[in-house]
Amino acid sequence: MRTERAYDYAEHVIRRKNLVEAVKQTHADRTQGVIVLFAGFEPECSRFLQESSFFYYTGICEPGVALIIDLQGSTTLYVPNCGSVRAKWVAAPLELTQKNSAILGVDRVEHLGQQCTGYQIHPFFPRHEYEQIIEALGAVVARGGSMFTLTPDTPHQYIEQRLLLERLKVFIPNLTERLVDISPLVAHMRRIKSAHELEQMYQAIGITALAQEAAAKAIAEGVNECEVQASLEYMMTGSCAHPSFPSIVASGPNSTVLHYTVNNRAMKAGDLVVVDIGAEYEHYCADITRTYPVSGTFTPRQRELYELVLATQEYIAGLAKPGMWLSNKEHPEESLNHLAKKYLADKGYGNYFPHGIGHFLGLDVHDVGDATRPLQTGDVITIEPGIYIPEEGIGIRIEDNYWIIDDGVVCLSEDIPKHPHDIEMLVKESLEAGSDQVN
Ligand code: GLY
Ligand code: MN
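Output (structure tokens, whole complex):
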């Protein structure tokens, strides 16, 4: 866990200033109002990870918090009023109090409302727990101001924040008409990674490299997929990281199931194993896939297909640069997704690549960002072609993480072996070491 006193909140303060400017420019017709960002809520019995956009603009890792920014840039942090009881349950490296406001880079720290019942708050809160922020937002709405917040019209984004807004609507008349969705602006800002963010992503990728190596070394005939998972996740946990999504260790027929996470099959000689994993370190994610032969050697057919997947990745990485699109059906000749599909279709495998070529990567594994806006310098994307042939029990995916620069890409994960010979050597080394021990 990071030590909050040493943590530098300055970059978050700059992002908020940029957000205020972006909101003012985009919504120049709305001169009255506030930007409101809500933290995520703590699950009862699983790990809390801060909602990514709240983290991006605050650096604060506590649940249930809210930030109001007025259009002059003045900030008020609203924190749950849990009293001293919270400290008995969870560790908070820095108290979110007025005395620490300068460290946090905010102007004021207030309570959300009256004392809450336990040590946590929830989106279906009783009114008194949110009384103060209800009054503050109610006053904005009463004077005809807007509330700029994250309320997209999509099925899957910002779910807790939208539940919370639904609850606030019960207590703040006319709130619905005052809501303005800023999720496209936020997504646009989050796409461009700063030098500090790239450093964090390099760390996550470095840990994932260790995990891939551990996976390769654990692979052998008779070993269960879950044992490979345990070996690779050991490297993440031992590096103060967590899996950024459920680890995929998919062998034999399972390798053709794109998001297979059951991980309970004993691997057989001749199988391929798709290992699609990523470490999340200090909020930033990696997402890297390698495909290994259980016996340490690809069959001629597996190798032919593996080389084709690798060639597809190299072809697409050679085309990726600002101005191209991740996916845009209006411009198929400049859309990496369409170009990858065409490349594989021309080789006879058009029906065997059912997913997209990649996605943005950052605070979320499938990071925010509109894939139909062209790539720009500073984006980080994955390029992850695959071929899946269920009738042959063969699935192959190769995925790396790329930083878009002015004239192309930098592969951030280039040190992780992927050429067929290197992949074979990695698996063989440990198989040979294992057989030496037996003899
Ligand atoms: N690594 C899983 C995915 O990108 O969907
Ligand atoms: Mn991916």
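The CA atoms of residues 272 and 293 lie 5 Å apart.
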